[in-house]
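Chain A, query sequence.
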Amino acid sequence: MAGIKAINKKNPSKGGKRTKNQDRWLLKSIDNVLGRKNSPPTKGKFYPSVFGNPCDKYLYLAYNGLLDWDIIQPRVQRIFDHGGTFEGRMKKYLEKANLYIDDEVTVKYDDPPISGRIDFIITHEKHEEALLELKTIKNEDFKELKETPKHEHLIQLQIYLNITDRNYGVVLYENKNDQNLKAFKVDRDKKVWEDVLNRCEKIMEMTTEPDQCTGMWYCKCKNRR
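Chain A, predicted structure.
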């Protein structure tokens, strides 16, 4: 998923006449219980979701607990909650298909310290067991996915495969607009894992914050001074 700032900047309205006759008291009452602050990553740990960002400045800040708290707008929280319902629905589907083994499985690697959570472990006819990562995605991005998952999701799953010593996983996408699915095969790649470990070592050896942000426009350290 893109960063929170990227989600916040997207305007859900694409023009047309202004919506009228709104019960703004009700809308405000709902929004008031959804807005919140989201704490930054815990100091001294790497999380699989951060490695898709190519910016070492960002990774350094995340590892050292120097990122600012995110302001989660009510609309963004609803997006997150919608993604959460996907996991609940998928668990029911997997159980009904006799594929479910476990879910929300915590995984840890000691050196370097990496901590994450696998969405699902499932049975698979060709691989005995497989890891399954779930992602919801907007229609435009869903259409663009042709042969592989998004880079950040691929890296995340590779980390889980290597930590748990498994050889196969799947990134399953649901289109937010029409609930169509795409399931991309991911074979374990030890070279990717070596690159992750080397990057962790480099970050842990840094004594000062890198000067330049090399991430995308929504990278959290882009405007850091």
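The chain is about 35% helix and 25% strand. The first helix runs from residue 4 to 9.
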